[in-house]
Design a protein that fits this description.
about 300 residues; 9 helices; 9-stranded mixed β-sheet; two-stranded antiparallel sheet; alpha/beta
């Protein structure tokens, strides 16, 4: 049985892709060179970009199920290894740790600053990227990173200031299994260990966005249960969509990799749903194709076994 029988969703014919890593950006103030991976279709021009931020502790090799699907669907997907990666093994008392959330945003801006150089480093890619169409996406901690690029404001735990760190080069966002609002709904663990979640303000996000939430994603970070991860949808302004994945836990069936031990709800149908809906959204929001997204909205109603899609 093919995936399409399962979800009822449509998508483009997949293209061949190429992946190149590590591309190295010098970043003296970061304290480590920044390693970047680019996955791109081997054909096509004016290709839009997805800037993807991994979850806490992951790296540029993660999330192949999503990255490969998006690239084969016509997108240049750019990943990096952020400072919180287990791969870098920063000590617990590293002075950069409290600012991890901010370094991630700087990593993304550096990629955008160096996009022409990065593009030229991938054989056959030069001149084929549309720099005016960039979507930020991320899972978990990476969803916050993507959100900040489109206007999410995080109160810096050290200064108490909530700056606008958005980047006008980013046109839209996809936030997968991402933190909701802080305040007294945070657990003591989250309050103490993830201080950048204490006060998040979603009200300034005007760019369009897709939020993906698992209805069984019961993280030890909030007392509200799985509904917490829908906050980036419910608390932001209009022009947003929410995909609720039925039975989905934090890794939404296994989006961080094939046979990855951290996935507690391994389910290929769930992964296919997330792959197809996110690609349909990417094609819709970048103006590439509208039919797959309209089909997804028509198919994913309250009685669909895998998930439901709503918009505002």
């Amino acid at each position: 049985m093919t995936m399409h029988h399962t979800t009822g969703l449509t998508g483009p014919a997949p293209r061949a892709t190429v992946s190149v890593k590590p591309l190295v950006l010098s970043a003296p103030q970061r304290g480590e060179d920044q390693h970047v991976r680019i996955t791109a279709p081997t054909t096509g021009t004016s290709l839009p970009v997805v800037l993807f931020a991994h979850g806490f502790g992951s790296d540029l090799d993660g999330y192949a199920p999503l990255v490969d699907h998006w690239a084969s669907g016509g997108f240049v997907v750019i990943q990096t290894t952020h400072l919180d990666s287990k791969r870098l093994g920063l000590p617990a008392d590293d002075p950069r740790r409290p600012e991890m959330w901010r370094y991630r945003v700087q990593d993304m801006r550096r990629i955008l600053d160096e996009l022409t150089t990065l593009e030229a480093s991938v054989p056959g890619l030069e001149g084929r990227i549309d720099h005016s169409r960039v979507v930020a996406a991320g899972h978990s901690f990476g969803g916050q990173t993507a959100g900040i690029l489109v206007g999410l404001r995080v109160t810096d735990p050290r200064t108490g200031a909530a700056e606008d760190l958005s980047d006008s080069r980013v046109m839209a966002s996809i936030q997968l299994a991402t933190a909701g609002k802080g305040g007294d709904e945070l657990t003591p663990f989250a309050h103490d260990n993830l201080p950048w979640l204490r006060d998040q303000d979603f009200s300034h996000i005007t760019a369009p966005g897709l939020v993906v939430a698992g209805d069984k994603d019961d993280l030890p970070l909030s007392t509200r249960g799985p509904a917490w991860t829908a906050d980036p949808y419910t608390l932001s302004r209009g022009n947003k969509s929410l995909l609720t994945v039925r039975g989905g836990e934090h890794f939404l069936g296994g989006i961080s990799g094939h046979q990855v031990t951290e996935t507690t709800d391994e389910n290929p149908d769930r992964v296919a749903l997330v792959q197809q809906v996110t690609l349909a959204y990417l094609r819709h929001v970048t103006g590439t194709d509208l039919t797959d997204w309209k089909n997804a909205q028509a198919v994913l109603t309250d009685d669909h076994p895998l998930g439901s899609l709503e918009s505002k």
